[in-house]
Amino acid sequence: MPETKLKIRLLGDPGLRKASKPVRQVTEGHRQVLSQMAGLMYESSGVGLAASQVGIYESMIVTDTGSGLYKLINPKVVKKEGSQVTEEGCLSVPGVCIKVKRARKVLVEAQDENGKPVSIEARDLLACVFQHEIDHLKGRLIVDYASFWERLKISRKLKGLSRKSGIPREAGKRGSRDEKLPESKAESCKLQL
Question: What pLDDT score does 161 carry?
């Protein structure tokens, strides 16, 4: 586990597309990383953060929608019910909001930071956050949910941001949607995950 200060990876970083491996044995190192992730999530005004967003490719997430902090290892959605559409932002895709359809209620099974099994029934916002963060662990981003028109709008926005910031376009396996973005304020979208 890295001992350096964690940093959020941005769209264009190929690591965001990498699938995370399950944690086989929970260690003190994992607990330290989860605590650092929680600190970074709060510092960034987010409500969720996956380990892959900070360059650690083990299955770990942190979330806090206002009802308490969850530090989860090997989280999996084992049951889904209903549907909801929420406008989501992402700490790794600053300045972009996408309407995403997800289950309204989920049952998540995981391990806590001490390796003990936990089962969490989540609804509405918390269900959305869990699904978003678990997507990260699979290498999936909110831009993958964008409609044709949203992709066109995002593409134009990303090109404009790249020209302004001087960041060259990066060729990713998913085309212009993987272009790297500069840091931006979280206020552009209310829900930053």
Answer: 38
pTM given for the model: 0.82
Q: Return d(Cα 20, Cα 178) in angstroms, integer.
A: 19
pLDDT in tens, 53-77: 999 999 999 999 999 999 999 999 9
Residue 3 covered by a domain: no
In a domain, 8, yes or no: no
Whether residue 118 contacts residue 72, with contact meaning beta carbons closer than 8 Å, is answered with yes
Active site residue 133: yes
Residue 136 domain boundaries: 14-188
Catalytic residue among 133, 170, 183, 187: 133
Q: What is the CATH number of the domain that holds 171?
A: 3.90.45.10
Task: Tell me if 58 sits within 8 A of 23, measured CB to CB.
Answer: yes
* Residue of 139, 152, 60 whose CA lies nearest to 92: 139
132 located within any domain: yes
Q: What is the pLDDT of residue 187?
A: 43
- 144 lies in a domain? yes
